[in-house]
Amino acid sequence: MSFASLVSERLDGLTPAEARVAMFMADHPHSVGHLSAARLAEAADASDATVIRTVRKLGFDGLAVLRETLAAELSMSGRLEASLGAGHQVGTMRLIRERSDAVNALPGRIDEESLLKAVDIASKAKRVCVVGFGPGGFLAGYAAHQFRRAGVPSTAMTATGQGFADELSRLTEGDAVVAMAYDRTREVDVLLDQAVTFAIPVIQLTEDSLTADPRASVVLGAGRGEPTQSPTHATTIIVLESLVLAVAARHTKRADRATRLLADLRGRLAASPVAPDSDNTTDGDT
């Protein structure tokens, strides 16, 4: 049984305050792993004691055990199993609807003020550095490519471990970072520290405001679809593309120059090869 189903089953046996805590945890499972009991209580408008009492009424010995359960449920294999749990007869359409629902929910997840602030940061940057790891690395490369097509100097930062040090060392004044930071990793932590040290603004794409890092300049809660289902990157792609287009709209002349240059280069590359000048050929027998 999923955690959300467990909460739904036991909701009638909870007090109003306990029900608020339980529903909050069911709606924001990613936050349970990051927030302390005090922060969970604050978010659910309850007390620390209510959080602990709710956890026990749901059948867990403590918050740590609940976190372990949710971690397994939110793991890649757990989310994939949940997505396919209804069996093969479900077909593709249900999966498409799930992803469509995630996309349709975006306007309610990201407020316009935050988005405009992100556009302002990226528009003023001398270079936009897009950070992503794992599958997010491919999205980072795509976004950097789109920024460059709009005339914005951009690079993708996708290395992990010690290799990430080389990319971090190239961050400099005037840069802005767009970081796909849905999970807390050592790379993200060091990146944010480095950004603070050099006063480099960071636009963080994450699940929601509760998983935001206070070191980020602005947070866009793109999310990755239903937390207990197989994650989708559709929402992230839409936010990245919207950011690129909005920045291009701020600098239409720059974007137009980049577009015309690209068209010119494509035309030259598509032209037929020039044949060698016959007058310059020599006959070895003469």
Automatic annotation (TrEMBL):
It comes from the Bacteria. Pfam families: HTH_6, SIS. InterPro entries: Homeodomain-like_sf (IPR009057), HTH_RpiR (IPR000281), RpiR-like (IPR047640), SIS_dom (IPR001347), SIS_dom_sf (IPR046348), WH-like_DNA-bd_sf (IPR036388). One of its GO terms (molecular function) is DNA-binding transcription factor activity. Residues 118-253 form the SIS domain. Residues 1-77 form the HTH rpiR-type domain. PROSITE patterns: HTH_RPIR, SIS. GO terms for biological process: carbohydrate derivative metabolic process. This is Putative RpiR family transcriptional regulator. It comes from Gordonia amarae NBRC 15530.
